[in-house]
Amino acid sequence: MNHIRKANCVIVKKQSFIAAMMVLGLWATPSQAYEVWMGTHRMSSQLATEPTTWARTAAWVDGFNYNRSPHGTEQATGAQRKDVIRRINHVENTLVGVPRSQVTRTQVDEASRAAIADSIENSLQVSSQDGAQLNEFMLYDERGPDDVLYTWTETEIQIFREELDAQGQHDTRILWRAANNAARNLDFASLPLIDGLLIEASADRFMNNHFNVNTLANSFWNSSVNSDKELYLQIPRSENNLTQYEATRRAVLEMTNVLGVDGVRSDRLVVLPVTYGDNIDQLPETINNGSAYPDTMPGIQLSLIEQRPYFEGRMGELPANFAASTERFELPEAIASAADGSLRRDKNTNVVDGANLGFVVNNASLEVGQTGTAPYDRAAVIPFQLPNFGEVDDPFLSAHFEGFLTQTATQNGVTAALYGLDRRPTAEILDSDYYGLTGAPDPNATLLQEGFLRPDMDLNAPFYSNSGGNKNLLSFLNDQYAGGEGAGEYVFLRANTNEDSNQRWVFASGNDADESLRPQLRYLTVPEPPVVPTYGTLIAGWDTWDSATNPSASVLAPGVTGSAVTTTEQQAWNIVDGRGASNDGTWGTFLGPPTASTEGGDGVQNENLELPNATTGGTITFTITNNGTSDLDLDGFHFDAYAFRPKAARAYELSVSSGAITNGVIYTSTDDEITSVAGAWDNSAHDDISHSLLGLADHTLEVGGSVDFLLAFSSGDGDGSGGHDLWIDNVAITAVVDVIPGDFDHDGDVDGADFLAWQRNDGTPTGLAAWQSNYGTPTPLAASSAAIPEPSTILQLLLATILLTKRSYRKFGTRLALLGITSV
Q: Where does the record locate the signal sequence feature (predicted)?
C-alpha cells in the first residue's frame, strides 16, 4: 500500500473563507493590519501583581476601553489600577463609554449642554487620576434605573462636539455604540460628527449574524460616507457551548465573509475582547512553557495579535480546527544580534571615541544612560543581519524586538528611544552611530519608538517593542530589504537617552551566556507560494452522465476505454438534478484541454451525479484500460464536488482498488471535508479537488493494462429531512503521454487545428516543421476514405480563410516571413 501525503492534494474550496483569502492576495504587499484592543472592565489585582504573565499583551495591544466600573472579584486597588494603566498607556487610542442615561435624565437638547460639559470634564479627570489619556468617547442609548430608555439626539451630539472643543479636546473622537441593526444605529453612525461605530455583541452573534450585527457591520463598512471611519467589534462573551477563546476567534474569522479580505487587513477594523465578570480568567497569556494560549483574556488577545497574518489570510490555508487550536504554532523566527556594544560619549567634551572611551563589544550586557563616576552617556547599538528571501518586495509580515532587562532607570521623565540605522555591508559599529541626551529626533536615523525604555520597568524580565514600535519596525525592515538589495547586509537598532541624567538601563547583550536572553528581532515572513502540480493529458473524463449506475466516460483519449459503476448504502445515485452540475469548465483543478461541460441548473439532467438525501454513503469505481500502443504514466485524479446541505456524505477516500498499478489508499479526507452550501445551490460552488498519483510506487499503466479507482463517500447522517445531497461532476484521470511532434493541442493527432494552436502558442520554425512532417499522424478515424490533403495545401487553405485584424496580420505575417513563406 502506498499512501500519498496530503501535500500532493490540491483542494480549492470556493465557498470557504480560506480559499477566498488565498485567491484574493495571499502574497500581496502587507498593509496595515486590524488592531487588537483590551478592556479594563474587570481589572483584577493580578494584572498588577503578576505583570510578567501578560507582558507581551500589554506591549502589543493597540488601544483600550477605559472602564472603571466594578466588575468581578479581586478588584485592583487605586495604586494597582495606575500600575496596570501605565503598562498599556503607550497606546495611541483610549476610549470611554458615555451612556445617555448617566448624563441627564431630565434635560434634552440645548438644555442638556451643562450636563454634557460636566460629563466630559468628569471623565477626563477620573481617567487622568489613573494615568489614562482619553481620546475617544463612545456614546450610546441606555435604559436608566427607572427602566426608561434615554436616547441621544443629533443636537446633543453636536453639543458634545462643541464641549469637547471648548475643553481643548479638538482631536478627541466620538464613536457610536450599537448592539443591533436598527435603522437608528446606522443613521447615527453615519453622521458627519461621528468618527466610528462600535458594535457590542457576543461572539455567537457575530458568528451567526444574530440581531443582524454583521449586516450592520457590512452596511457601515461599505458606505461611502463612512470610508474613513473605524469599525470596532467589542466581544464580551460567548453565548454557546464554545470556549470564549474559540468563539472569539471564530467571530474574527467570520469578518472575512462580512468585510472581505481587504477589510480584515485594514487598520479601520478594531477587535476588542472584553469581560464583564468572573466568567473568564485574567491571566496568564500563555501556558505549557509558552507553547499554548489559555482561555483567558490576554490569551485571546495575544493569539489575535501573534497570529494576525493567519487571520488575514497571508499565510496560506489555515490548519484544521484553527479557531479552536490553542497551539502557538509557527512563532516568529528570530534574528540573533551580531557583535553589539555600547558607545560612550564624554559629556564634557562631547567626544565619542570607541577605542579610548571604553566602547565595549561582546560584553555580557548593554547599557543606556550615564555610566561610571565620570560624566559619560552610553547608547546601545545592536546589529542584525537581514535574511535572504530572494528578490521580493516587503517580505516581512510582522516584526518586534525583544530583550531581557536587568537594571532600570527610576527618574520620572527619563526615557530612551529606539532608532533604526540604515543597512551596511558589515556589522561594524561606528562612532557616528552614537546619539543621545536630547529629545530632538535624530535626522540621520529612523525613529521607531519613543519611550522604548522607561522608568521603573520590570527587572530580570523580558521587554518588548510596543505595538506602535512594531509597526514602524516592520516598515523599516521592509524598506531596508529593498526588494532583495539588502539581503545579507546589516541593519542596526539603537537605544539612546532623551535627556541628560544620571540614570541608566542595563539589558543582556548578544554575548550573554544564556542565548534566550540575547536581543532578538522576531518576524513572520510571507510563505513560499504552494507548488501547484502540473498534469499531463486528460485520458478519461466524465462531465456528462448517461447512467446513474454505469456511467460511460464522455471524454476519452485515443486508445483508452473508460467506464464506471456506482453503489449506495441507501438511496440510489441519480442524474436528474442539474443544480449539482459544475459550470467552471475545469476538472478539479485541472484546466484541460478539453474544457469540461458548463451546462447545469434547475431542471437540467445528465450533467452531474447525485448521492441523494437520507444516504450515509456510496461509492463510484472508475475503470480505465490502455488499449493504445504506448504506456501511460498516470499522474492525477480530479473531480468537482459539493453538498447541498451539511448532513450529506461529505467525507471521502480515494484508492486504487485493483489493477496494473500500485494498489492502496491515495487519500483519506477529514469528516465533512467537502463544502456544504447550506441549501443555497450554486453551480459555481464546487470544491475543485485534484490528487497527484505520482506518489504511487508504480503509476505506469502499461499497454493492455487496466486499473480501478474507488471513490468512496461516507459520514452522511442519513437524515431524511430534505436536501442533504452530495453532488459530483467533472471526474477526470490524467497521464503523461508521448506527444506527437506537431500535436500542439494535445488531442492525439496532427491536423489543421494544431496549425492554429502553433500560430497562437508556438510560432517557431521548428514547430512548423514538426507540424508539416507529422501532419495526418495518426490517421484520423473517419467514415470517409477521402485522401488527406498535403500539409502545404492545408496551409494555403488556412491562410486563405483566417480573418486577421490589422494588428494580428502584421504579427502573423512576420512569422511567415521568418519561415520564408509568402502570405496571400
A: 1-33
Closest CA relative to residue 677, chosen from 727, 620, 607, 615: 727
Whose cell is 468618527? That residue is: 195
pTM above 0.90, yes or no: no
Name the burial class of residue 603, with classes exposed (0-12), middle (13-18) and buried (19+) by CB atoms within 10 angstroms of its CB: exposed
Task: Please tell me the distance from the alpha carbon of residue 213 to that of residue 210, in angstroms, as a whole number.
Answer: 6
Which H or E element spans position 817? helix 806-818
Domain 6-11+532-736 classification at class level: mainly beta
- Between CA 412 and CA 454 the distance in angstroms is 8
* Fold observed for domain 33-319: TIM Barrel (3.20.20)
Cα gap 335→384, rounded to integer Å: 7
The whole-number pLDDT of residue 823 equals 29
Residue ranges covered by each domain of the chain: 6-11+532-736, 33-319, 335-525, 752-818
Structure confidence at residue 689 (pLDDT): 95
Q: How far apart are CA 611 and CA 583, in angstroms?
A: 19
Which cell is 780 given?
484520423
CB 232 within 8 A of CB 196: yes
Report pLDDT digits (tens) over 129-184.
Answer: 999 999 999 999 999 999 999 999 999 999 999 999 999 999 999 999 999 999 99
Lowest-pLDDT range of 71-75, 305-309, 559-563: 71-75
Q: Among residues 290, 287, 301, 292, which one has the least CA distance to residue 327?
A: 292
Distance CA 136, CA 120 (A): 11
CA–CA separation, 586 and 593 (whole Å): 9
> What is the phi/psi pair of residue 821, to 5°?
-110, 135
How far is Cα 232 from Cα 140, in angstroms, rounded to an integer? 14
Q: Which band of pLDDT confidence, cut at 50, 70 and 90, is reported for residue 259?
A: very high
Matching residue, cell 502553433? 758
What pLDDT, on the 0 to 100 scale, is given for residue 90? 87
CB 771 within 8 A of CB 752: no
pLDDT of 820 > 50? The answer is: no
Distances (CA, A) of 33 to 23, 71, 267, 645: 18, 31, 5, 35
Going through 45-195 in order, the beta strands assigned E by DSSP cover: 63-65, 93-99, 136-140, 142-143, 149-150, 173-178
The answer to whether 744 and 762 are in contact (CB under 8 A) is yes
Residue 584 makes CB contacts below 8 A (sequence gap 6+) with 596, 598, 640, 684, 686, 688
C-alpha cell at 101: 442615561
Over residues 783-813, the pLDDT tens digits come to 233 344 555 555 555 544 443 333 333 333 3
Q: Are 557 and 749 in contact (CB under 8 A)?
A: no
Q: Nearest-5° angle of CA 415, CA 331, CA 515? A: 60
Element (H, E) at 494: strand 490-497
pLDDT at 226 over 80: yes
- Cα separation values, 289 from 54, 274, 293, Å: 14, 25, 10
Percent of residues in the chain assigned helix, strand, coil, to nearest 5: 25, 30, 45
CA 265 to chain centre: 8
**H or E segment and range at residue 479:** helix 467-481
Query: Contact at 8 Å (CB) between 510 and 493?
Result: no
E-state strands within 76-200 = 93-99, 136-140, 142-143, 149-150, 173-178, 196-200
pLDDT band at 654; cut points 50, 70, 90: very high
Taking the C-alpha atoms of residue 680 and residue 580, their distance in angstroms, rounded to an integer, is: 11
